[in-house]
Every structure is written in C-alpha cells, then in structure tokens.
Amino acid sequence: WCAENCPLSSATIKGTFVHATYHTAVEILEDRLLGVDTEGKIAFIGSGKEVDRLYYPKAHFVVIDVCSEFFMPGMVDTHIHASQYSYAGTALDMPLLQWLNMYTFPVEACYKDLEFARNVYTHVVKRTLRNGTTTACYFATIHTDASLLLGQIANDLGQRALVGKVCMDTNNFIPHYKETPDESELETNRFIGELLKKKYPLVRPVVTPRFAPSCSATLLGHLGEIAQNNDLHIQSHISETKEEVSLVKELFPDYDSYTDVYHRHNLLTDKTVMAHGCHLTDGELKLFRETGASIAHCPNSNISLCSGMLDVRRVLNHKVKLGLGTDVAGGYSPSMLDAVRRTLDTSKALTIQDTQYHTLTFEEVFRLATLGGSQALSLDENTGNFEVGKDFDALRVNTDAAGGPIDLINHGEGPKVESNLLASSGDDRNIVEVYVAGKRVVPFVERP
Ligand code: GUN
Ligand code: FE
Fold first, then answer.
1. Which residue ranges does the record assign to the Amidohydrolase-related domain (predicted)?
2. I need a surface site. Which of 73, 89, 266, 428 has the fewest CB within 10 A?
C-alpha cells in the first residue's frame, strides 16, 4: 500500500465495494477487483476472472479480505459553513434569525483576520476529511482573502470542494458585517478570478448569496448575472423557518414565493443547491424540478434550531435532486455519518406523526449521502460511486477497527449489515483511509 500521499496510480484493489447506483440504493460488490489509473480514475471493476485481461502488470496489488472491511464512496457534504466550525456544538438556544444576529455574524466578522481564518479552516477541512467527507460545499464569510485561503487549504489537504465567498448587503444588527452591492459584486468577481487562476484541480468557486433576507434585489441580480456569465455553481438558503418565509414575503412583496425571488434573479439553475427547504410549497418544488436546482437536507440543524422537519420523501416524489448537509454550526456535528443518522431520525419522527408515512430506508439514505450528494452538486459525472471512468473518491471502512466504537463480537453478517452498522454506530475511527481522486488523504502525512 502507498506509504504516503502518493497517487494510487496503476493500483488494483481486491475486496468488497459497497456503493449506490442510479438504479439500486445499495449495491454490494463482493470479491471484486478495482483498478485505479494514473489520473486517479476508476479504470475497471470486475471479478477475479477478469483480472488477467484487465490488471496492470506493474500495479500495486492490495487485498482486503477481512470480513469487517469494505470500500464505499466518499461522502458529500452539500452544505457546511467552514467559518462557523469554531463554535460548533455551542449556542443552539435560539431560533434562526436571532441565532444569526447573536452568534453567527459576530464570529464571521472575525475572518478579516487571516491567521484566525487559517487556524479554523485547517481544522475544519482536516476534521471533515477524517470523517469521510471527500467533497464539501462550503460557505466561508464575506472576506475574499480568507475565502481564497479556504480554497487553498482544501487543495493542500486534498479535499474536493466548492468554496463560496458569502455575499450580503443587508445586516441591521451588525452593520460592519456587510458589503455594498457594488463591493459584493466586485469582490465576488475577484474571488472567482483569483481562485480559478490557481488551477486547483479539485476546488471550484460557488456564487453565494447568503439568503434573500440578507440581500437586496440589486445584489441578487448582480450575482445571478455573474453565475450565468461564468457557468458557475450557486448556493444559498431557502425556507428554513416559517419566520424567515414571512420575512421574505414582507421584504419581497412583488414575488410569487421565496423560490420565485431566486428564480427571477437567475439564481435557480441545474448548478444551484439551496439549503433546508423545510417549508417549500408544491409549486416551489415544481420550480426546483423544472430548473434542476437541488436541496441540501440539513437535519441536525433543522432540529437543533427548531427550524422544521423536511419531508425528504415528498421532495424525492417531486423528482427534485437532494443531498445531505451538516450545516455546521446550525448543525452541531461536522460528520456526514451524523447527517445520515439525523436524516433517518427525522424520517422516523414524521412516521410517528403519521403511521402511513413512507419512512426512508437506510439504503436510501446511504445513497443520499454519496451519489445523491454528487447529483445535488452536479458532480456525478465524476464522483458519487464506483463507476468506471469516475474519480476514485473512497473510504476504506473497518467496522471492527481497534479502539473503535463498535464492539460486536461476531462480524461476518455480510457487507450490507456492516455498512448499516457504520451508519448507525460508527465514527471516524472506523474510516481507516480516505481517498480523493485516487490519492490517499487520510491518514494525514505530517510534513516537516
Ligand atoms: N440562513 C442564512 N444564513 C444562515 C446560516 O449561517 N446558517 C443557517 N443555518 N441558516 C442561514
Ligand atoms: Fe447554512
């Protein structure tokens, strides 16, 4: 096995692979051989018999034959505030709009200080990688240089990332934490230009209006235009709480709905991901479907801030793309395994309220955490599962890892049970290795 962060070029891995496909929520591939090419892409996946034909003569040959071990695709966090990591797990005693004013804006204002930013951003990228997040869609803050630094840190540590410099020109509570519409437009263009100039292979900019209550129509218009002209991703928040929905109605009285506010500023595209969406109407979900925009389901945050319980089944029935998000620090956990658990919990809470409810299965949620997230971020051409031609973004899981939290005497029930076990009781101790685009990024190699 690679001794350090070397590319997994021409490697062949023999073992069990658990992944989601477009047709099957969880597909188990036992006793397979998976080849990774020099660019970190999956070159082949086949059974033992095919190996003679396919396998590279000079390959590393890795055999995983412990019954508690398997590979799964890396998880995709479709919504996380890197800048809020510094207070994750605290300050969850207020509803959203007060919480933003009391805790979030004062903390985010600190990212003017690049050393403060470097410290927190290094910690959050390392922590999420260690917990199996191979792709993260980040909110930073309004500060361009600190946001660029987040992009650099993700690149240096090997995480695939969409990074957003936050845009907001309305803030009545902390007047120094906002921009003018012109500044925001100018700095967004600078952010995009400078980030693209770095040519980081796995890091992309994402146009990031914070949410409608923090943005004037003028600013939303600028941002829609920037995204359109540069064919960029877009992220924001929508219909997280009922109070917020009422506020948007007040602030934007001439629009049909909250969704219409974004739509009429060209901010709903097939590269848009909107966080929460707990209180969207059927008509709004139809607009999501028509535009190809997706939803980031953030169950920890939705419960922690008492925002609402998103009915994921309803969203899926509308054929709207949906991924999972941790929404640190509205959500207190940066782990996508937590997002999986909370998604199942919320679905079960909805089932308690209505016994006829069609509860999400573990398999469906496994798909949402991996392939679903890649689809929600329009990255599934290259990531999300173990299809030939995609980048090898993968977790080597061992449910029986020494010192880990799972204390089963008898493993050997098969990979379906082992993957379920990871989702219900596992943590980062069970994620023994993490690969992004064929490169091992966890365990970290400390450089002198
Ligand atoms: N809506 C606008 N900004 C935020 C934020 O930082 N966190 C959450 N959860 N919702 C938001
Ligand atoms: Fe958020």
1. 71-441
2. 89
CA of 301 to the centre of ligand 1 (A): 9
Asked whether residue 2 is domain-assigned, the answer is: no
Distance CA 185, CA 167 (A): 8
Structure token pair of residue 228 = 């359109």
The continuous run of DSSP H or E covering 42 comes out as strand 42-47
Atom 9 in ligand 1: residue holding the nearest Cα: 330
Dist CA 137 CA 215 (whole Å): 20
Number of domains observed in the structure of the chain: 2
d(CA 120, CA 183): 25
Do 82 and 208 belong together in one domain?
yes
CA of residue 86 to ligand 2 center, whole Å: 15
Q: Are residues 266 and 351 in the same domain?
A: yes
Q: What is the pLDDT of residues 85-97, one digit of tens each?
A: 999 999 999 999 9
Give the residue whose CA is nearest to atom 7 of ligand 1: 330
Ligand sitting nearest the alpha carbon of 273: 2
Cβ(164) to ligand 1 under 6 A?
Answer: no
What confidence tens digit (pLDDT) does each residue in 368-392 have? 999 999 999 999 999 999 999 999 9
For residue 114, the enclosing domain spans 75-376
